[in-house]
Description:
Protein name: Multiple sugar transport system permease protein
Largest sheet: none
Number of domains: 2
Oligomer: single chain
Pfam family, one: BPD_transp_1
Number of helices: 14
Strand content: under 5%
CATH class of the largest domain: Mainly Alpha
GO cellular component, one term: plasma membrane
Domain ABC transmembrane type-1: 92-282
InterPro entries: MetI-like, MetI-like_sf
Number of strands: 0
Amino acid sequence: MTATTTLPRPAQPLRRTPARNRPAARARRYTKAIILWALAVGFLLPFVWMISSSLKRNLDVFSIPVRWIPDPVQWANYAEVWFGEASIARYFGNSLIVSLIGVVGDLTTSSMAGYAFARLSFAGRDKIFLLYLATAIVPMQLLLIPRFMYFQQLGLYNTLWALILPGIFTVFGTFLIRQFFVAAPAELGEAARIDGANEWQVFWRIYLPLARPVLAALAIISFVGSWNDYETPLIMLSDKSSYTVPLGLTQFVDSDGGLSAGLAMAASVSSVVPIMIVFLIFQRNFIAALAHSGLK
């Protein structure tokens, strides 16, 4: 018998767009770019107007036509907002305490609960998880009055703990991290158990380091939600010294409904800075975490 020799197939030439189609493809690409740029500018215009208004006098904020470049520039608005009688420095401190403690608590409880629902076997695990998810159907507004009565009985009303404690347990955080752990390779945990690791060591040393991207994404979501929360502090706080930033911004409206627009815009710009800092720190992990957790 003679051995048959298989000749290698010639390499396939790269497919290129026919010359007659290149102008059409280029036109589609430019059209998409123009549409995206127009949308980006449309979304950024309110923020640009807010920055511009923060450097204007009150009488110039709502002038028509809009003057995008302030003249004269009122840097004194920021000095008044931070060091004047209606300083928001105290409110910033309160918001940072509530947000940072809430983020740490949310990451801790969500990572442990997510790992338990994803990797531990116990009776009724899936049913309990579905019941836990079902609690997300209840609107947040319906829970404000029961929480108010509960924290009042505990003596936590008008304290920052009334804002912190509800934020350290979130259904979304548990679901997000559980989805990540479900997709993680089970062989890693099995190999660690064979080497003698207990369940806590498997969680802490094997799976939790892999979850850094999703933890970063959850940190962004939790921080932004806690920082921008207005309704909960409005119900739970009555002392101005305990106000957070969203409530502090209302101090620039007098009892007659008059608005110190320049000061209010300067305070609003200042309130956005921490959110931008947190997002810029963790932005690389945000999209990757959502993709790995199965949220599209």
